[in-house]
Amino acid sequence: MRRRWLAGAFVGILLVAAGCQDDGTADFGQPSVTQVTFECSPASPVAGSLTTLTVTAHNASTKIDTIAVDFEDDGTWDFEQAFDALSVTAHFEHVYDTAGSVVARTEVEDFNGAIVSRTLLLTVESPPSPPGGARQRLSGSP
């Protein structure tokens, strides 16, 4: 009976040393890469209207630490949010003031310090004209 217990303990130690995960896969020291998607809604933002940028990040073995977003790619992070999970989805809202092309950027950092960046090239549309064109109000006496 004692030999069977020792053999089981030895196999358990080997599995831990080999880096086996709970799902039965082996890690063997290979770093896991964070998968990141970066999307905009609506796909073609309208100047003066709310735009939502969505970042989804997943890493099978290392938790996500932070997600940062720069709405105009001007080098300043407009939002940075902390996390402590293997999979996260974060929504960031912004209003673009003027029509034209703009680049939005995100960076996702995991707890090992690995960073994954993504960019979106957005075309911000002009707001639609009011129906019937611009109306003028006339003032004065008849």
Question: Helix and strand layout, with pairings?
Answer:
Blueprint: H1 2-18, E1 35-41, E2 50-58, E3 64-70, E4 79-85, E5 87-95, E6 100-110, E7 115-124
Antiparallel strand pairs: 1-2, 2-5, 3-4, 3-6, 6-7
The run of helices and strands is HEEEEEEE
CATH architecture of one domain: Sandwich
CATH T-level topology of one domain: Immunoglobulin-like
How many β-strands, per DSSP? 7
Give the radius of gyration. Answer: 26 Å
Strand content: 35-45%
CATH class of one domain: Mainly Beta
Contiguous uncertain segments of 5+ residues? 1-26
Largest sheet: 4 strands, antiparallel
- Inertia-based shape: elongated
- Name the average pLDDT: 81
Q: How are strands sequenced across the largest beta sheet?
A: 4-3-6-7
Oligomer class = single chain
Class inferred from helices and paired strands:
mainly beta
CATH superfamily of one domain: Immunoglobulins
Discrete helix count: 1
Helix content: 10-25%
Measured between the Cα atoms of the first and last residue, the distance is 111 Å
In short:
The chain is mainly beta. It is built from 1 helix and 7 strands. The protein has one helix spanning 2-18; strands at residues 35-41, 50-58, 64-70, 79-85, 87-95, 100-110, 115-124.
Structure description:
There is one protein chain. The protein has 142 residues and is mainly beta. It has a domain at 31-124: Immunoglobulin-like (Sandwich). It contains 1 helix and 7 strands, in the order αβββββββ.
